[in-house]
Design a protein that fits this description.
The chain is about 40% helix and about 15% strand. A three-stranded parallel beta sheet has the order 2-1-3. The protein is an alpha/beta fold. The chain has a domain of about 55 residues: Response regulator (Rossmann fold), CATH 3.40.50.2300. The chain is globular and about 30 Å long.
Length: about 90
């Protein structure tokens, strides 16, 4: 069931959470539930509150998550080859 956001301009956080929810549901529907524990979702965002909250949300869906404050930080990490989903 799809939830509608409150009237008015949605806040960045609401849009990010909704996008993550849809991404997780899409990934989950394509893979067997037992394999989602091995999927790494990388989150690249300069907003510290996003980097702190998204791993918890993604963890609720059974995904491992790593956060990065910039694209350069992500690209220089050892997570590039393991990342199955990148949220910018």
């Amino acid at each position: 069931m799809r939830r509608r956001l409150a009237a008015g301009t949605p806040r960045k956080g609401h849009l990010i959470l909704e996008a993550c929810r849809l991404i997780c549901l899409s990934l989950e529907s394509r893979l067997e539930r037992s394999t989602t524990d091995h999927l790494l979702v990388a989150v690249v965002d300069d907003d510290e509150s996003v980097r702190e909250s998204l791993p918890d949300l993604l963890g609720e869906f059974g995904f491992a998550a790593r956060t990065f404050s910039s694209a350069a930080e992500f690209l220089s990490s050892d997570s590039v080859g393991q990342t199955k989903c990148l949220i910018l």
